[in-house]
Amino acid sequence: MKSEQFVPRRYAPGAYASEHIRITPTRLADGRRFFYMDDDPEYVSGKKTRRLDDPRDLPDRFAPHLDAHGEEIPFQPPQMRRDPLTGDWIPMATSRMNRPITAGSKAKAQGNPLAARKPGDPYQDGEIPDVDYDVVVFENRFPSMMQVPGNTSADGPDRFVDGNPLWPVREASGHCEVVCFDPDEHALPASLPVSRLRTVVEAWAFRTAEISAMDGIEQIFPFENHGQEIGVSLAHPHGQIYCYPFIAPRMEQELRQCHDYHERTGGNLLGDILRGEIRAGERVVFRNATWVAYVPAAARWPLEVHMAPVRDGILTLDQLDDEERWGLAQMYSTLLKRGNAFFDRGDGQGMDLPYIAAWHQAPLHDGRRETYRLNLQFFSFRRAVDKIKYLAGSESGMAAWVSDTTPELIARRFRQLGPVDIGE
Question: Any signal peptide, and if so, which residues (predicted)?
Fold first, then answer.
């Protein structure tokens, strides 16, 4: 297996990435795309090269297979169905039932498929060809959405469950990727140096730019799930990128609010929220020259922080300049460290906080996108050292949130953990 020539469609590296980050593409044994993103100077310079062949004997992921009667049937992509009560599209991700789980009480696989390859380890189905790496990005082996080459049915008319037009069915022709932040499977994202997080930021920008050129994608959603309590199945510092063929329900709500606000006032709702939080001051928890982190005035979660760039007009991660990407790496590192210190167990050590970090970017084609603004929404359902917030009747049944604290108390605790102005 040889390296593919990397010809970006929309990604344009800035001065820092051009000099300090090298992107090397290849393909895994089943045909999935894979990218090394190296920040080690010896790999950036070309003095060293990564292993590009995948030694596993995997069938092509789109190959036909035999049914119970020995008949060959074509590959079946995942489908999605629309809920007639809400209008939401629900992907049916049956392949995820077979994914390896190496974390928590339900672990069923030895080793770590996201770790660098180690000869002799019990798990020999790892996704990383080389024995080391800096940051890697690759297509998910067990995706909830995927595009099948040459498949035209995804663009055709809706089908229906039981032939009833109440329940439209389409192929879930999205795209899912994994971003591994570091080769050390025992590392915490909060422990990574800012320089490594800078490479992760570049990975988010790179993939946002490139995936935006794919047909059929409406929204690109980088996110990170961290901690067994969140439901993480692989204990490794990593995140994911979901690329929806629709606009996700939460984004649809935010787009509607932003568009309506713009129609009424001519302003940008997210920009005005940021400026309002800066003026109020009390809920701003830290900031640097390019980013501001604050607890939103109507926070839902017992620990919740939003983060936004200072500069107006930024819709997506790939629109950040070099200074803003470095500022983001510093802010993200600070956020993770202070999140881990938020709950005091009495020993001053804090805890490994379970959290979700969700990047809200403007959708790709919706006419309301210009009224949106890039922001990160970070939250945890832990409400004390030994308590979590359960999404019970009101939250789960009616999506009517009841907060267990106040945004001002959350912000006050964050402000106790370090200075508000963190510089550069």
Answer: none
Of 203, 224, 244, which residue constitutes the final position of a domain? 244
CATH number at residue 212: 3.30.428.10
Query: Out of 238, 259, 306, 360, which one is annotated catalytic?
Result: 238
Q: Where are the beta strands (DSSP E) in 181-301?
A: 219-226, 238-244, 284-287, 291-294
* Domain boundary residue, one of 198, 227, 244: 244
Asked if residue 193 belongs to a domain, the reply is yes
Are 260 and 180 in a shared domain?
no
Cβ neighbour number for residue 33 with a 10 Å cutoff:
14
Counted domains in the chain: 2
Q: Are residues 286 and 341 in the same domain?
A: yes
- Reading the chain (424 residues) residue by residue, the pLDDT tens digits are 445 667 888 999 999 999 999 999 999 999 999 999 999 999 999 999 999 999 999 999 999 887 778 888 888 889 999 999 999 999 997 655 455 544 444 544 457 899 998 877 766 789 999 999 999 999 999 999 999 988 766 677 789 999 999 999 999 999 999 999 999 989 999 999 999 999 999 999 999 999 999 999 999 999 999 988 887 778 899 999 999 999 999 999 999 999 999 999 999 999 999 999 999 999 999 999 999 999 999 999 999 999 999 999 999 999 999 999 999 999 999 999 999 999 988 887 889 999 999 999 999 999 999 999 999 999 999 998 889 888 889 999 999 999 999 999 999 999 999 999 998 6
CA distances for 85 relative to 88, 166, 167, 252, 271, angstroms? 8, 10, 10, 16, 32
- Both 239 and 277 in a single domain? no
Q: DSSP string of 197-212?
A: HHHHHHHHHHHHHHHT
With vertex at residue 115, the alpha carbon angle to CA 2 and CA 47, rounded to the nearest 5 degrees, is 45
Range of the domain at 231: 15-55+89-153+170-244
Same-domain check for residues 236 and 270:
no
300 and 175, same structural domain? Answer: no
72 phi and psi angles, rounded to 5 deg:
-80, 130
20 is catalytic: no
- Distance, CA of 3 to CA of 49 (rounded, Å): 10
Per the domain annotation, does 83 fall within a domain?
no
Q: Which two tokens stand for residue 96?
A: 């995820």
In a domain, 77, yes or no: no
